[in-house]
Amino acid sequence: MSDYKIEDITSQVRRDIIRMVTDVQSGHPGGSLGCTDFLSVLYFEQMEINPSTFSMDGANEDLFFLSNGHISPVFYSVLAHRGYFDKKELATFRKLGSRLQGHPSPDKKLPGVRIASGSLGQGLSVAIGAALTKKLNGDSKLVYTLAR
How far apart are CA 41 and CA 45, in angstroms? Predict the structure, then answer.
C-alpha cells in the first residue's frame, strides 16, 4: 500500500460521510463521524488484511463485523479507501440499484461486507462465532466487531 498519513485518511473519510448523506438527504452522519478514527486506524494500521483477495471465508486474515449497520457511510468510505472497491462508487450511496445501501448486506456482493448488519447488535454473536471457528481451525488471526 502506498504511503499515507492516518490524519489524511480520516479527514477524507469525514468528507465522504458528509457528502454521501447530504447528496441523498438520508443516513446517519453522527455515528459515522464518531467512528471514523476507530475504523480508519483498524483498517489502515491494525488489521492484517488483503483487500485484493477478499473472500467470504476470511481464513488467515483479520476479520471485522459491523454490528451497527446504520453507520454504513463510514464503513463504506473506509472500505473504498482501503481498496476493497472503487471510491467512485461512494457517489451511489442509498440510490436505487446501488450496492451501498443504508445497512450493509452481503447479498450486494460488496467486497469487505461479510454479514448483514440491519439487525443491530447481531455482529457481536457473529464475531464470537468467527473467533471460535478461527480457534478451532488453528487460525491465529483476530476478529473485531463494533456494537455501538
Answer: 5
Q: Which three cell numbers stand for residue 53?
A: 483477495
Give the pLDDT of the chain (148 residues) as one tens digit per residue: 567 899 999 999 999 999 999 999 999 999 999 999 999 999 999 999 999 999 999 999 999 999 999 999 999 999 999 999 999 999 999 999 999 999 999 999 999 999 998 778 899 999 999 999 999 999 999 999 998 7
The amino acid present at 3, given as its one-letter code, is: D
CATH number of 6-146: 3.40.50.970
Q: What region does 25 belong to: left with phi over 0, alpha with psi -120 to 50, or beta?
A: left
Q: Are 44 and 79 within 8 A, CB to CB?
A: no
What is the DSSP code (8-state) at residue 43? I
**120: Cα separation from own chain's centroid:** 15
* pTM for this entry: 0.95
Element (H, E) at 64: strand 63-66
